[in-house]
Amino acid sequence: MYEVELKVEADHDAVRDRLEALGADRLGVVTQEDTYYDAPHRDFAATDEAFRIRRESHGDEAIVELTYKGPKVDAESKTREEIETAVESGSDADAIFRALGFEAAAVVEKDRDRYHLNGYTVTLDSVDGLGEFVEVEIEAEEVDDAREGAKEVMMDLGLDPDEQIRTSYLGLLLGDAEE
Amino acid sequence: MYEVELKVEADHDAVRDRLEALGADRLGVVTQEDTYYDAPHRDFAATDEAFRIRRESHGDEAIVELTYKGPKVDAESKTREEIETAVESGSDADAIFRALGFEAAAVVEKDRDRYHLNGYTVTLDSVDGLGEFVEVEIEAEEVDDAREGAKEVMMDLGLDPDEQIRTSYLGLLLGDAEE
């Protein structure tokens, strides 16, 4: 399975109207605060890896997850190894990694308002310091068909898939050029 | 608060008889499997630190904990900074640290049979590859008084506190000399 994802910068108000008109199911808002770490022994920007603590809250529920993202496994699909486990305490996990020499390099905070539409997940992201974005994504075996479908969803929402941004929010915050 | 701890090597059968005769409360057996990691950027043996994943089971219950132990803060008390948090998956946490360049250096497996006696915790440890040990410990503000009390408990159990071993089980397994 591949995760096919398109992301564009877009004001949310018009997109929300379109989602309602198209009868999309609203899944609710999740708040994510991701702290990305620099390693003491490896340059993650050069190795194309990432290591982070995610604090996610959804109403009264809160979870903390530890995530490692490996480098892209090929040039085309943006597929990465991703290893994740929940931890009880984000502050204790942070203290452990700081003691080991890791340093918090950047924090990405966003509110994610998620909808389901025609089998796709449409996410309205409000990212602190960056602005408003819309992501259309799906898990699929057939990457090409899924990408065409995601482009159609984008157009149904009044968005231009050619304005796709491939850089992560972390990369945008750190000022990385388009990948 | 300090954790005052005395440890000696001792056959358990005679100690169990003494614990029962003295009316100690048995708390039950816990199994611990501790995987200690080498760091890619730091020699923990030289810096007197440790980083491990502990898998602990007690009947049907199982927990996994991530622990960092800092160097001893002074020469006398064996006090260390210890930071710990539970994680959901030991295998995912292990995979994350291996991906970051940490390597499993040693595994310490033991069954711990714990008793309460006169305010002290008496633990009968059966350590794979090392043998049987008895630990007497207490948390206290007054280290000297607590240590004298722990020695008395040792003697009540028919053990000689002068045979105290100060090296950790990890250190003993790795063949470290007495600290």
From TrEMBL, chains A, B:
NCBIfam families: cyaB. The lineage of its organism: Archaea, Methanobacteriati, Methanobacteriota, Stenosarchaea group, Halobacteria. SMART domains: CYTH (SM01118). InterPro entries: Adenylyl_cyclase_CyaB, CYTH-like_dom_sf, CYTH_domain. PANTHER family: CYTH DOMAIN-CONTAINING PROTEIN, SI:CH211-156B7.4. Gene3D superfamilies: Hypothetical Protein Pfu-838710-001. Residues 1-175 form the CYTH domain. This is Adenylate cyclase.
